[in-house]
Amino acid sequence: FLRLVMAAAVLALIVRPPMRSYSREQWKSALLLGATMAAMTLFFFAAIDRIPLGLAVAIEFLGPLAVATFSLGGGWRLVWPLAAFVGVALLSHDGKGWIGDPVGVLFACGSGVGWGAYIVLMKKAGKAFRGLEGLSMSLIVAAVVAIPFGLPRAHEAMNPEGLAMMLGLALLVPLLPYALEMTALRRMPMSAFG
Fold this sequence. Notes:
The protein is mainly alpha-helical. It is built from nine helices and no strands. Helix 3 (about 55-60) packs across helix 6.
């Protein structure tokens, strides 16, 4: 939550998005992308709280793989996400039982769906806005959406060391990667990005 808030604040100060001048379609794009960013982030952290990080990331990567497959037209290519899903399922069994709890796996699946939707929505926002204005607006929305989930525990990081760490993390993830991804998606097809 604090990373989203700080990333949104830093980018808004740099970009200074002219909020009053945006069209209904631009607002819709920013709202959808921001809500997706928040959901993707919240689902991922809920997943790694319940299942091993490697398993959560492997499941989450099925989202971009699905986007790549569907962007290329689906058909016979659908065998690849299916094979990847089977592989992840096999890796999540250690010979004695299933790793992690089913709720954590569901959260990781939610994060994967969010990541897939994020790619599609980021591409649209990149076309709808100039520069990083769409990203700035979307991060503001993401921070607002995350309030009910993060605000109750935000006080735990309200010390100089915690705030400095959150600011550093906010710049490294999500701000820098999201900015680079928006720039990349303007220049490359979703299939290649996925």
